């Protein structure tokens, strides 16, 4: 089944100097699959996403995307191949307008003007509030709108896999529901694969197909979201949470 996986991470180990952030982590995401990556603070979740998008060096192991080995590929090549990463904290540019932020997401396709225009129309259709605010400074957006902008900007790169790092951080419960609503829509309507790092485990498992739980950099549990939601060992892993 390896050939059918969109993302295939094998025995990934990443260290920051003397600190091993993740060790022998293996996970897969199939096309159109919604996978949750869970675990306490510092468990290594963000590091796995950074290694997949090429922002940190892989110490050992292998990362394949769409069947091609990308373990040593530059981040720009991974993005061009269809990998998009929405990092924690959104990283939008407050001095630019909403539309300028979105256009930056299409940087790799910038010469394809009509394609960029279609991309904008498409994300405005998905996020009508961004359309209303297209000419406004991104600095005036609410937390939920800023998160939507970060996701919309990632979509402008025409990804096949969307990786999100705690997109619900700091959002009130109604906005959290909205985030899961559009992720479900992206997967259903566009067949996007989703790899989601999330602290809100219940809601993540309610929407995901499968989940992986990291504990101190190692894979502690994995299985269907349904199984994980009912697994007693799960809470034991979580007691480590500060
Ligand atoms: P969080 O939810 O807090 O972001 P996480 O599960 O995403 O946690 P990581 O951010 O991947 O965990 O961190 C894993 C380990 O690596 C932690 O011990 C962390 O302190 C360490 N670490 C992360 N980034 C760096 C860095 N740039 N330099 C040194 N150590 C780091």
From TrEMBL:
This is ABC transporter ATP-binding protein. CDD domains: ABC_TM1139_LivF_branched. It holds the Pfam family ABC_tran. Belongs to the ABC transporter superfamily. Residues 7-241 form the ABC transporter domain. InterPro entries: AAA+_ATPase, ABC_transporter-like_ATP-bd, ABC_transporter-like_CS, BCAA_Transport_ATP-bd_LivF, P-loop_NTPase. GO terms for molecular function: ATP binding. SUPFAM superfamilies: P-loop containing nucleoside triphosphate hydrolases. It comes from the Bacteria. Keywords: Amino-acid transport, ATP-binding, Nucleotide-binding, Transport.
């Amino acid at each position: 089944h390896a050939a059918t996986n969109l993302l295939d991470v094998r025995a990934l180990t990443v260290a920051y100097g003397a600190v091993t952030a993740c060790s022998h982590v293996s996970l897969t995401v199939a096309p159109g699959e919604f996978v949750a990556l869970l675990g306490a603070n510092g468990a290594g979740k963000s590091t796995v996403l950074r290694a997949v998008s090429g922002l940190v060096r892989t110490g050992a192991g292998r990362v394949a995307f769409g069947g091609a080995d990308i373990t040593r590929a530059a981040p720009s090549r991974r993005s061009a191949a269809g990998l998009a990463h929405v990092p924690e904290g959104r990283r939008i540019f407050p001095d630019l307008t909403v539309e300028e932020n979105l256009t930056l997401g299409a940087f790799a396709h910038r010469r394809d003007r009509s394609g960029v225009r279609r991309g904008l129309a498409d994300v405005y259709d998905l996020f009508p509030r961004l359309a209303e605010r297209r000419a406004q400074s991104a600095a005036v957006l609410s937390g939920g709108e800023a998160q939507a902008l970060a996701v919309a900007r990632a979509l402008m790169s025409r990804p096949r896999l969307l990786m999100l790092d705690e997109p619900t951080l700091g959002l009130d419960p109604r906005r959290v529901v909205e985030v899961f609503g559009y992720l479900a829509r992206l997967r259903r309507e566009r067949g996007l694969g989703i790899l989601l790092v999330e602290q809100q485990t219940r809601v993540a498992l309610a929407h995901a197909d499968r989940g992986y739980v990291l504990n101190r950099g190692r894979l502690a549990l994995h299985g269907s979201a349904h199984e994980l939601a009912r697994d007693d060992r799960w809470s034991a892993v979580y007691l480590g949470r500060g």
